Amino acid sequence: VQLQASGEAWCRLGGSLRLSCAASGSTVSIMGWYRQAPGKQRELVADITRGSSTNYADSVKGRFTISRDNTKNTIYLQMNSLKPEDTAVYYCNALRVLDRGAYWGQGTQVTVSS
Length: 114
What we know:
Elements: E1 2-5, E2 9-12, E3 17-24, E4 28-36, E5 43-48, E6 54-56, E7 64-69, E8 74-79, E9 88-96, E10 102-104, E11 108-113
Parallel strand pairs: 2-11
Antiparallel strand pairs: 1-3, 3-8, 4-5, 4-9, 5-6, 7-8, 9-10, 9-11
């Protein structure tokens, strides 16, 4: 599975950004976004099934929306009301249907300035 995520993004406090991630090479089931801030562990931000059932971290509920286009094997993360604490490297993740193996994208730096 190859995951191609959108590039580095930046905005000011309260702004909005949209990330995308396209999967290719094999059929995937759950796809999601994780993030890792400096000095912190990687954490789940949101994930989505092929049937569009979603799951969010408490810290982003009501501000972030994950969506999916199965015809393009692509997920999107709409991030609104961004805060400096959302600054992190965001990683796209996908589970391959064949063996439930987990695959990761290259990481996208998101920076929110105050």
